[in-house]
TrEMBL record:
The keyword Acetylation does not apply. Keywords: SH3 domain. Pfam families: SH3_2. InterPro entries: SH3-like_dom_sf, SH3_domain. PROSITE patterns: SH3. The keyword Acetylation does not apply. Residues 58-113 form the SH3 domain. It comes from the Bacteria. This is Variant SH3 domain protein.
Length: 113
């Protein structure tokens, strides 16, 4: 497992995270302006979140998820040390010292090993 130091604070958006399972049907909308590799994905229950476009079998409209994904983001302050599990589309799935997990952008991190 890799480690990183947070070099820029990150705050999760004020909306519920969604969990996407492989095979889920979603409707894809617009691409994110700051993160164009992400697309707005809406589940059948109406909840939506940003997910990597590469996760789906289509680029817009009706799509099927090709893998599991959770949109949960991790709040982190500069100077914190994190354990990194996986990288997707320039974001890392990370765990902090208290055991909280979520995504954090790579640009907010300094990789240590």
């Amino acid at each position: 497992m890799r480690r990183a130091r947070v070099i820029a604070p990150h705050r999760a958006p004020d909306r519920p995270a969604i969990r996407i399972a492989r095979g889920d049907a979603l409707t894809l909308g617009e691409r994110d302006v700051d993160w164009p590799q992400f697309v707005w994905a809406v589940q059948t229950d109406g909840l939506g979140g940003w997910a990597p476009a590469s996760l789906f079998d289509a680029q817009r409209g009706p799509a099927t998820a090709l893998d599991d994904y959770d949109t949960l983001e991790l709040d982190a302050d500069a100077g914190q040390l994190l354990h990194l599990r996986e990288e997707r589309s320039q974001w890392w799935w990370a765990r902090d010292a208290r055991g909280r997990e979520g995504w954090i952008p790579a640009r907010a991190l300094e990789l240590l090993d």
